[in-house]
Amino acid sequence: MRDHVMSCFGTCVEESTKFYNTPEESKKARLRDKQLTRLLHKYHKEDMKRLKLLLLGTGESGKSTITKQMKIIHINGFDNHERLSKIVDIKRNIRDAILSMAGAMHNLSIPLQDESNQPCLEYVLREASNTEQEITQEFLEKTQQLWSDGGIQECYEQSHRYQLIDCAKYFLDRLDEIRRDDYIPNDQDILRCRAITNSIQHIEFNVPDAGDQVKFSVYDVGGQRGERKKWIQVFDSVVAILFVADASTFDQCLLEDSDKNRLLEALEIFEQVWNNRFLRNVSVLLFINKIDILAEKVLRGRSIQQLNELYPDVFPEYSSFNPSNSAKLEFMESFPGGSDIHKKKGRSASRPDIDPEVVKTAVYIKHLFMKIVKGELKLKETFEPHDKEWHSQHNCEYYYTCAVDTNNVKKVLNGCRTVIIRKHLERFGII
Ligand SMILES: Nc1nc2c(ncn2[C@@H]2O[C@H](COP(=O)(O)OP(=O)(O)OP(=O)(O)O)[C@@H](O)[C@H]2O)c(=O)[nH]1
Ligand SMILES: [Mg+2]
């Protein structure tokens, strides 16, 4: 395309020399043409080196968290000013979390374990609903007291029945630290902090690769329904899509639609991205994210079986699903906390710390996404059937991720980088 544009410039100027009055003018025009061509070649080369990546996925799937990890891994992380500016968001997260749980106590008829905490509950409900008000020390103190009540803890266990941000427990457990006057958020606090993305965010960084510097340009968009209409604005010249899917939400409904299962929504959006004609040449890297929360949930007795019961026409039978050993191994190797000694000795199959049901659930979710890739699972009736060749220009690779774990993300990004660069070079006929 660009060569085509360049040759157009060349032909136009050559042709137009006929219309110059003097040889001088014609010479000048030829010089301009040369300079222009050189410039276009230069930009073409620069462009070849800048790889545009796009983070897509439903709301709260972890896109901005991956962007923050890229900042930590590739761009010197966060300075003091940025850290301090996060305190407001962290305190808001605490307020939103305690308000959700206190409200749910009433709706789910869960009583306080210690009745003397009743005034504290009333105070929190009254103060937290005024979102304009500054979050005071007294409020944080009362929140901490309430968080220690067995009733609130019971409510936390039931959080699949209402909307609660994922970082609730993390920040409520850290209130001693957060309440201090000299509190400065650390990297983990920043990664856990939740703020909805409602405008297109962009970061750039260089990564050394095979003796050269490769420039990455990463776009992070909002994933909630109202934000998705903006996605198309950033589709142009994308090299790869990092599609972030929250694997832990099989038992939750959307914040923006209380009738819609979150995992089903993620699968539908993935299907739309995979079959989008504007993205037909774009590699898709699927991040099956929040595997840590998935594991916690399964250990608390939550099962994906219920999704299968709710939508029997969509989801294949879970109870008879029998993943292969290699599929299980793949997940176990990705799960944070695995010791390298096991891997070196070729004993990574033995991860006694991971419950077999956790492995089965994660592999089942991966299987669902891969069925979409293969065209074996069709969720939207409106899709025209594509012929076999339709997807021949792009492919999909998947990774199990825990976006708040820097080591895990670093490993995954290293793997992705190789795939992205190779695909990019193949596309431009360089390899
Ligand atoms: N425990 C855990 N929390 C995660 C993980 N990934 C993301 N989170 C948390 O999930 C919440 C939502 O993450 P975001 O990165 O803001 O999600 P998003 O996809 O950017 O959401 P939108 O901007 O609304 O589209 C944050 O509190 C993150 O810290 C994960 O793998 N494990
Ligand atoms: Mg975001």
TrEMBL record:
Instruction: Write out the residues that bind Mg(2+).
Output: 64, 197
**Keywords for this protein:** Cell membrane, GTP-binding, Magnesium, Membrane, Metal-binding, Nucleotide-binding, Transducer
Superkingdom of origin: Eukaryota
Q: What is its main location?
A: membrane
The record's subcellular location field reads: Cell membrane
Output the Gene Ontology cellular-component terms.
cytoplasm; heterotrimeric G-protein complex
The yes or no answer to whether the keyword Lyase is present is: no
Q: Which residues bind GTP?
A: 60-65, 191-197, 220-224, 289-292
Q: Does the keyword 4Fe-4S apply?
A: no
The protein's matches in SUPFAM superfamilies, at most eight in alphabetical order, are given as: P-loop containing nucleoside triphosphate hydrolases, Transducin (alpha subunit), insertion domain
Q: Which InterPro entries match?
A: Gprotein_alpha_S, Gprotein_alpha_su, GproteinA_insert, P-loop_NTPase
Annotated GO MF terms? G protein-coupled receptor binding; G-protein beta/gamma-subunit complex binding; GTP binding; GTPase activity; metal ion binding
List, alphabetically, the SMART domains matched: G_alpha
The UniProt entry's GO biological process terms, in alphabetical order, are: adenylate cyclase-activating dopamine receptor signaling pathway; sensory perception of chemical stimulus
Q: Which family does it belong to?
A: Belongs to the G-alpha family. G(s) subfamily.
Assembly mode: G proteins are composed of 3 units; alpha, beta and gamma. The alpha chain contains the guanine nucleotide binding site.
Briefly, what is this protein's role? Guanine nucleotide-binding proteins (G proteins) function as transducers in numerous signaling pathways controlled by G protein-coupled receptors (GPCRs). Guanine nucleotide-binding proteins (G proteins) are involved as modulators or transducers in various transmembrane signaling systems.
Q: What is this protein called?
A: Guanine nucleotide-binding protein G(s) subunit alpha
Instruction: State the species of origin.
Output: Patella caerulea
